[in-house]
Amino acid sequence: MRKPLTLALILAASLGLAACDKASEDKAEDAREHAENAQEQMNDAAKENQKAIEDANEAAQERAKEAQEAAPPATPSPAPQQ
After folding, report:
1. What are the start and end residues of every segment in region (Disordered) (predicted)?
2. 3-state class of 51 per DSSP?
3. What is the pLDDT of residues 51-71, one digit of tens each?
4. What is the Cα–Cα distance from 38 to 41, expressed in whole angstroms?
């Protein structure tokens, strides 16, 4: 009598654990997908940041060029006469 009861309890526990295991596999898969999405978003953000840096450098170079063109050429001023 004791052996069939023990066997039934082991079988029930095994089935219960097997049912729980599927959910944990799904959660692990979801976590992996979220990690992949986060990595892709980080890569996209890094690319956008690099583009912004390049645009800022280009704008600074253009401003420097415009300022140089707008400034009158430097001519030596005559020495004051006494």
Report:
1. 21-82
2. helix
3. 999 999 999 999 999 988 887
4. 5
Residues 7-66: pLDDT tens digits? 888 888 887 777 665 677 788 889 999 999 999 999 999 999 999 999 999 999 999 999
Which structure tokens are listed for 4? Answer: 């069939």
Going from N- to C-terminal start, the domains of the chain cover 27-65
Cα distance between the two ends of the chain = 130
- Name the DSSP letter for residue 73: P
What's the pLDDT score for residue 2? Answer: 67
**Residue 36 carries which side chain, given as an amino acid letter?**
E
* Both tokens assigned to 13: 């526990």
**Residue given tokens 């890569």 in the structure block:** 43
Q: pTM score, two decimals?
A: 0.52
